[in-house]
Design goal:
single chain; mainly alpha; 3 domains; two-stranded antiparallel sheet; 2 strands; about 60% helix
Length: about 170
């Protein structure tokens, strides 16, 4: 559907029924299915074959259509197989993270890329192992706090170190 004939474009008049022209209905249904992938109307219109300038214009027009609004709502409420839905959402999330991790365009940020890459690393089991050893040392009234896996372990180590500091101060 990469060649869009603008003479066949739907005139969205606000009627709640689907367009009577089968090509117009097919285009709106394609737009709806593309929109439900990432909920980005402009990208959905581009995937339907519109160039960016036209995609912006028609995506607004399509999203204002009662037919599109109704169908999107119906499809979102539709019961689906949970395992297929979970797999689809995992793939969609991975795709979004990959896109964010490599996006350098307008509005991008280094912190968003790093966060996306960190999440991808976690998904693929590539994160650094967490430290579990609790070694708290104190030197001259200053307590060094190591990276410890759980808050409870840290609190126990800190209390012990605090007792040692108080004991040393009394000597």
């Amino acid at each position: 559907m990469s060649d869009v004939n603008f003479a066949d474009m739907p005139e969205l008049t606000g009627a709640d029924d689907a367009p009577s022209n089968p090509r117009q209905k097919a285009l709106l249904d394609l737009f709806i299915s593309e929109y439900l992938i990432d909920f980005d109307a402009v990208d959905a219109a581009q995937r339907c074959g519109f160039q960016r300038e036209f995609a912006i214009q028609y995506s607004k027009q399509f999203m204002d259509s009662p037919y599109v609004k109704r169908r999107v709502k119906e499809l979102q409420l539709m019961k689906v197989d949970e395992s297929q839905d979970a797999e689809f959402n995992k793939a969609r999330i991975k795709s979004a993270l990959i896109r964010e991790a490599h996006y350098m365009g307008p509005g991008s940020s280094q912190s968003a890329r790093v966060a996306a890459l960190a999440q991808l690393a976690k998904l693929y089991g590539m994160e650094a192992p967490k430290k579990t050893e609790a070694t708290v040392t104190h030197r001259g009234g200053v307590m060094a706090v190591p990276g410890i896996a759980s808050m409870d372990e840290w609190e126990a180590a800190a209390e012990s170190s605090q007792r040692d500091l108080v004991s040393d101060a009394r000597k």
